[in-house]
C-alpha cells in the first residue's frame, strides 16, 4: 500500500467521522449530554436550539446510535436523552478539542509563533 493510499484511507476516516458528528447542532447536543441524561426541554434551554432543530438532531443522533431516548409515561410525560456507549466514546475527543482550543484559540496572539519556535528547536536538537 502506498503512502498516498494510506493517507486517503486516513482522510476518509476523518471525513466520514465528521460527516456523522460534525454539524454544529450535533456537536452541541453530544457535548451537552456528556453531563448525563437530560429532558428535551433541558436540552432546549442549555443548547438554545429551536424545538424543531433539536428534535431533528436528536432523531438523527438516535438513528446513528449516539443517543438513547427514554420515554417516561407517568404524569407528567417526559422524554429523556442520554449518550450510548458510542456517544460516550466521544468524551475524550471533546476533552482533546477543548485542550487544543485552550492552547491555540484562547492563547495570546504570539503564543502560536512561540510554540512553533520551541517545537522547531526540539526537532533540531534531536
How would you explain this protein's 3D organization?
This protein has 126 residues and is mainly α. Helices cover 66% and strands 11% of the residues. The protein is built from seven helices and three strands. Strands 1-3-2 form a three-stranded antiparallel beta sheet. A hairpin with a 5-residue loop joins strand 2 (67-72) and strand 3.
Helix content percent band: 55-70%
Helix-strand makeup class = mainly alpha
Radius of gyration: 20 Å
Spans with pLDDT under 50 lasting ≥5 residues? none
User: Overall pLDDT, averaged?
Assistant: 87
In what range is the share of β-strand residues?
Answer: 5-15%
Helix count, DSSP H or I runs of 4 or more residues: 7
User: Main sheet: which strands, in order across?
Assistant: 1-3-2
Order of helices and strands: HHEHHEEHHH
Overall geometry comes to: elongated
Largest sheet: 3 strands, antiparallel
- For the terminal residues, how far apart are their CA atoms? 29 Å
Per DSSP E runs of 2 or more residues, the count of β-strands stands at 3
